[in-house]
Amino acid sequence: MLRIVSLALAAFLLMAGPTLAEVPEVRFAQQFSMGYLQFNVMNHLNLLQKHAAALGIPAVKITYVTFNGPDMMNDALLSGAVDIASGGVPGLLTIWAKTKGTPQEVRGIAAMSQQVVLLTSKDPAIATIRDFKPGDRIALPAVKVSAQAVMLQMAAAKEWGDAAFDRLDSLTFSMSPPDATAGMISPGGDFKNAFTVPPFQNMQLKDPAVHVVLSSEDVVGPSTGGTSWTSKRFHDANPQLYRAIVNAMQEASEYIAVHPRETAEFYAADTKGKIDIDLMVGLLQDPRYKYVLTPRSMTKWSDFMFKMGRIKQNPESWKDLFWQEIHGLDGS
User: Fold this and answer.
1) Closest CA to 270 of 41, 49, 26
2) Beta-carbon contacts of residue 216 (< 8 Å; ≥ 6 apart)
3) Per-residue pLDDT tens for 129-150?
4) Where are the domains of the chain?
5) What are φ and ψ of residue 111, in 5° steps?
6) Quick check: 272 pLDDT over 90?
7) What pLDDT, on the 0 to 100 scale, is given for residue 22?
8) Which tens digits make up the pLDDT trace of 27-54?
9) d(CA 109, CA 30)
């Protein structure tokens, strides 16, 4: 009898094995900014698993990988190493324009945040971007391609004309926001300027020697900052799972609005860095910081990048940049 039971169990496991192995996996790529807090909330509250189960998917494997800029993240997405990417609007525009109409087409899932991004300095001689001189160095997440890099180009074009849009590029270098912040507040740092992200920029400003040189509000006004995107391959192959992702992001957005302290604690736990929780809670309660899936002012970015030759295709509408699941939102 024992042998019969063992044989039956073995037969069951052989039949069940492939099914168990087919548990869907979603691999998220994220960055250091608090512009993508929906992912942190989803991770801690198991929201994707919850919404997937509601749509008939009983189990989902989820992993998160952190990148310091859009280029490597987009390479990982195109190679199939990750499924969902997140980053600033330039990262989405770059990969969208590069892949539009191809089998590797990439579009946005949704916006994730609106936030104020600041260029800071501890050099008292630098009050505006006009005061930068050769030899000054500006730390930002990724040269040329990050939202900060493009924003600096937009500011330069506004100050000196379109032909001088890259006038300050030679001063920039890549460094993660946590490392840039450590360099800014240390007395012996070899650079005095940083264009990073909240909450790190705000942590820098607690040092009385650090001041604001430029704000994103001066350049693009209220605008989507953080976005998320994925490939046509993933979108089309996983309709129910994709819907669960959008639903989970929406619930996470609603949670952030009501639970700023818990959200800040989730972020601090995930970044494993020294985060000023009270400072971050204050930012989350600032009406200029919003966590919504509705895209805002996308064409301000796309028009500039197209005019400067940074992208070879310009979307006619914000809807061209995003998969159809959010086309019913009141975007711009």
Assistant:
1) 41
2) 115, 116, 117, 118, 151, 223, 225
3) 999 999 999 999 999 989 999 9
4) 23-115+223-326, 118-219
5) -70, 165
6) no
7) 55
8) 999 877 899 999 999 999 999 999 999 9
9) 14
Superfamily for 118-219?
Answer: Periplasmic binding protein-like II (3.40.190.10)
How are beta strands 25-30 and 172-174 bridged, if at all? unpaired
Q: How far apart are CA 285 and CA 259, in angstroms?
A: 10
Query: How far, in Å, CA of 148 to CA of 169, rounded?
Result: 11
Q: Which CATH number fits domain 23-115+223-326: 3.40.50.20, 3.10.105.10, 3.40.190.10, 3.40.50.10540?
A: 3.40.190.10
pLDDT in tens, 162-210: 999 999 999 999 999 999 999 999 887 789 999 999 999 999 999 999 9
pLDDT in the model for residue 125? 97
Give the position of tokens 């509000």: 217
Please report, for residues 21, 230, 243, the alpha-carbon distance to residue 57 in angstroms, rounded to integers and kept in the order given: 14, 20, 11
CA distance 39 to 241: 15
The structure tokens 């730390």 sit at 139
Do the domains spanning 23-115+223-326 and 118-219 agree at the CATH topology level? Answer: yes
What is the per-residue pLDDT across 49-64, written as a single tens digit (0 to 9) for each? 999 999 999 999 999 9
Nearest to 329 by CA among 314, 312, 317: 317
Please give the structure tokens belonging to residue 326: 């959010």
Q: What value, to the nearest 5°, has the Cα angle with vertex 329 and ends 239 and 298? A: 100
CB 225 within 8 A of CB 147: yes
**DSSP β-bridge partners for residue 25:** 61
> At a CB cut-off of 8 Å and minimum separation 6, what does 245 contact?
26, 48, 51, 84, 109
